[in-house]
Design goal:
Number of domains: 3
CATH class of the largest domain: Mainly Beta
Largest sheet: 4 strands, mixed
GO molecular function: unfolded protein binding
Keywords: Chaperone, DNA replication, Stress response
Protein name: Molecular chaperone DnaJ
Distance between the termini: 78 Å
Strand order of the largest sheet: 6-7-13-10
Low-confidence stretches: 80-141
InterPro entries: DnaJ_C (IPR002939), DnaJ_domain (IPR001623), DnaJ_domain_CS (IPR018253), HSP40/DnaJ_pept-bd (IPR008971), J_dom_sf (IPR036869)
Structural class: alpha+beta
Number of helices: 11
CATH architecture of the largest domain: Sandwich
Organism: Microbacterium hominis
CATH superfamily of the largest domain: Urease metallochaperone UreE, N-terminal domain
Length: 327
């Protein structure tokens, strides 16, 4: 958009700032608006894209000291009643208006709009869609360029991942930095440290550090969401007759569980609140019973089992399975 339109545009109003706004507050106001109206976040909304273009134009002018002074002078003329008139329309025509500016450039009598306004803000035009260094590193309508992300990896033991901990990693420059591992982080999860990556090349936001987490398996426990699972072997007689058994917990004292008489393999006993503790909730400990079959029996034990076999119900435990298979 050509600068001859400055007369009718209130760039201060577009950015929501006062005419005496400082450079720092001007940049802050623009960045706040850019986050709302940037094309990447507006999903192709034409009205918001037009707003973003308008405010980017306003910032390009007001952030450049020379252009801002010229813009203020033009707007001051408009406030005093001096307006553009068509050539020959009277004493307040183009030549009279612009004879106040850039007199070293010579008479404006033969100039059209673009020639007249080329006197103001060399390099401040908008035709290229690119703002130069005078705009504080803002490029086109995209605003400042965000710094690049930095990736890192860490391997945690199972308990550290469940409980959470602050660890130390080495940065690209070899300097150590701390990372807070939240409780309940899972294998393959990524932790993002905002603003800890590479700096922006033109005054924008710094990138992030993205830490990829690998969790070593535990020899006893596994994760099931916020729950912890453990497989608990029991003897045949414990499962058949019932028993009270001890079950380990992660990093704590064992708990006692009651195995009811006739408990089959695969039954899950739940211990409330002994799973993973996170800000989103607390899981349980799930103890899956597994009946352990002895690999070797002495003669006395074998004889006892044979007597039991003679006494046990003669029902076929696989009868229902076979019937369903034939359906």
């Amino acid at each position: 958009m050509a600068s001859q339109d400055w007369f009718d545009k209130d760039f201060y109003k577009v950015l929501g700032v006062s005419k005496d706004v400082s450079e720092a507050d001007l940049k802050k106001a623009y960045r706040k608006l850019a986050r709302t109206y940037h094309p990447d976040s507006t999903q192709g909304d034409p009205a918001k894209e037009a707003k973003f273009k308008e405010m980017s134009e306003a910032y390009a002018v007001l952030s450049d000291k020379a252009q801002r002074e010229e813009y203020d002078q033009i707007r001051a003329m408009g406030a005093g009643g001096a307006r553009f008139q068509a050539p020959g329309a009277g004493a307040g025509g183009f030549e009279d208006v612009f004879s106040r500016f850039g007199q070293s450039r010579g008479s404006a009598q033969s100039a059209d709009f673009d020639d007249l306004f080329s006197m103001f803000g060399q390099g401040g035009g908008f035709g290229s869609g690119r703002f130069g260094q005078s705009t504080g590193g803002f490029r086109g309508y995209g605003g400042p360029q965000r710094g690049a992300d930095v990736t890192a990896r860490t391997t945690l033991d199972f308990q550290t991942a469940v409980k959470g901990e602050t660890i130390t990693l080495a940065g690209e420059d070899g300097k150590p930095f701390k990372v807070k591992i939240p409780a309940g982080v899972s294998d393959g999860q990524k932790i993002r440290l905002r603003g800890r990556g590479r700096p922006s090349p033109d005054g924008g936001e710094a990138g992030d550090v993205v830490v990829s987490v690998t969790v070593r398996p535990h020899p006893v426990f596994t994760r099931d969401g916020l729950n912890l699972r453990v497989t608990v072997p029991v003897t045949f007689t414990e499962a058949a007759l019932g028993a009270t058994i001890e079950v380990p917990t992660l990093g704590g004292d064992p708990v006692k569980l009651r195995v009811a008489p006739g408990t089959p393999s695969g039954r899950v006993l739940r211990v409330k609140g002994r799973g993973v503790h996170t800000a989103k909730g607390t899981g349980d400990l799930l103890a899956e019973v597994q009946v352990a079959v002895p690999a070797h029996l002495d003669d006395q034990a074998k004889e006892a089992l044979e007597r039991f076999h003679e006494l046990e119900p003669k029902e076929n435990p696989r009868a229902d399975l076979m019937a369903k298979a034939r359906e």
